[in-house]
Design brief:
The chain is α/β, with parallel strands linked by helices. The chain is built from 14 helices and 14 strands. The chain has helices at residues 56-60, 104-116, 120-136, 176-194, 210-222, 235-243, 247-255, 269-276, 293-302, 310-315, 323-328, 348-358, 364-378, 410-419; strands at residues 23-30, 38-46, 49-55, 68-79, 81-86, 139-146, 161-168, 199-204, 226-231, 283-287, 305-308, 333-335, 396-400, 423-427. It starts with 22 loop residues before the first strand and ends in a 5-residue tail after the last strand. Bound molecules: zinc ion. The site of zinc ion has 6 residues, from loops.
Length: 432
């Protein structure tokens, strides 16, 4: 990476944005997430963008005369976090489902009536609340699953940016049009026209029919969008695809969505999705708790990204994802909090700390990368987020370090301090 200052005139401005004076942020450590940590480093920003990064002394001497220097002593500067999977429409369900739950099916039984009772307006209110919470949790950007009610919502709070992903569901639906319905179809068309739809998705293999999964992925390909799906989250899903029986079948029958004569593919969820032709480098696989060695090979060979949600998995008692399997195959992976219906907060620092403790074979460096660069890569927003590099947005945070760093890796200390609330926004992620 070029650590030299780029030309100030190279800074891209948003439409209507007034150019501002450059600011040089100096810190004990700068975590670019692309290069080793910079001791006594600095980041030059202007008008919402990073202009340059490097050693403080070298950078200071090359800054324009009007540059303001801001010191962040005893801090590590790092890119603000990227949450790769959440459902902000469900923020209002916080505390309404006791956690932990005994299993996925029981949790779903509790969730469904609460979900059905949410009005469109309450989901919009929940979205705003969720965005504020993410901002308070050092998050610059989130991938937000919506089932339609908030797809058209513009970010109302100029804090955390949101990539809305429209998720379809419908095991009994023969095609995408019938799964969407007229109202959601109209919202989708409007969002596609306005360029505000961040991605498309199917809920899961057991809740969405094969033609709908295929068609929604095809639509994502047509529009160059991300495709997301919950996959291999729990053993009921594995059983259903193998034998067509179990809790998923029971649920579909209870809801009147079961298709008599439906033949289970007799394969794993990953193999099933591969057979449907929906796995590629713009596919984001969420959860991946129950994957075989062969499944991991498929994920790696197709270039998919994976988002792990370890605390949600623990709260629903569905098992523990083997993060090391993704790490050792260089599969791009990120972390997500999932929603407040299956998690107690939307903190990625907390998610990373919990994951780090239960996956000691994966290094703290990789967890810090997962909540920054990994998230940006999974969502294909590396041009703006995930690392400190000239041209990217200046969505930066400063994590306060203890007086003595001790023997723990710097990245581990940063994650724990972040989880203890020892951080601040260096710069608001959006121009005000
Ligand atoms: Zn989810």
């Amino acid at each position: 990476m070029d650590l030299q200052p780029g030309p100030i005139r190279g800074t891209r401005l948003r439409t209507g944005e007034v150019p501002r004076s450059p600011v040089l942020h100096r810190a004990a450590w700068v975590m670019t997430m692309e290069e080793p940590p910079l001791c006594d480093g600095a980041v030059l920003t202007q008008s919402g963008r990073i202009v340059a990064v490097g050693a403080f002394r070298a950078l200071r001497s090359r800054c324009p005369a009007q540059t303001t220097v801001r010191d962040h002593p005893d801090c590590a500067l790092l890119p603000a976090l990227v949450n790769a999977h959440t459902h902000l429409e469900l923020t209002g369900l916080e505390g309404q489902i006791a956690l932990p739950q005994p299993g996925f099916a029981r949790w779903l039984e509790e969730l469904m009536p609460l979900r059905r009772a949410l009005s469109a307006q309450s989901q919009k209110t929940a979205l705003e609340d969720g965005e504020r919470r993410l901002f308070q949790e050092a998050t610059a950007l989130c991938a937000d699953i919506t089932n339609g009610a908030t797809l058209a919502c513009r970010d109302s709070f100029s804090g955390t940016e949101r990539t809305p992903i429209l998720e379809v569901i419908g095991f009994d639906r023969p095609d995408l049009e019938s799964a969407l319905g007229l109202e959601v179809r109209a919202s989708l068309d409007a969002a596609l026209g306005a360029g505000t739809c961040g991605g498309l998705g199917a809920h899961a293999c057991y809740s969405t029919s094969p033609p709908v999964i295929r068609e929604i992925k095809e639509a994502a390909r047509t529009h160059g969008l991300l495709f997301s799906i919950h996959v291999a989250e729990h053993e009921d899903e594995i059983e259903f695809l193998q034998t067509g029986t179990g809790a998923c079948r029971d649920l579909l029958e209870k809801l009147g969505k079961w298709i008599p004569g439906w033949e289970p593919p007799g394969s794993t969820p990953i193999q099933y999705l591969d057979d449907l032709g929906v796995l590629d480098e713009r596919t984001l696989l969420v959860h991946c708790v129950h994957l075989t060695r062969q499944d991991w090979q498929i994920v790696a060979s197709r270039g998919c990204s994976v988002c792990f949600c370890p605390r949600s998995n623990r709260n629903l008692n569905v098992g523990r994802a083997e993060i090391a399997r993704a790490a050792e195959r260089n599969i791009p992976w990120a972390l997500g909090t999932d929603s407040l219906a299956s998690n107690r907060d939307l903190s990625l620092f907390a998610e990373a700390c919990a994951a780090m403790e239960s996956n000691p074979q994966v290094s703290p460096d990789e967890f810090l990368r997962a909540v920054t660069r990994g998230g940006a890569r999974a969502l294909h927003v590396q041009q703006d987020y995930g690392s400190i590099r000239p041209g990217k947005r200046d969505a930066l945070i400063a994590v306060s370090l203890p007086a003595s760093l001790g023997k723990a890796p710097l990245s581990e200390t940063i994650l724990y301090r972040g989880n203890e609330g020892e951080w601040t926004w260096v710069h608001h992620p959006r121009p005000d």
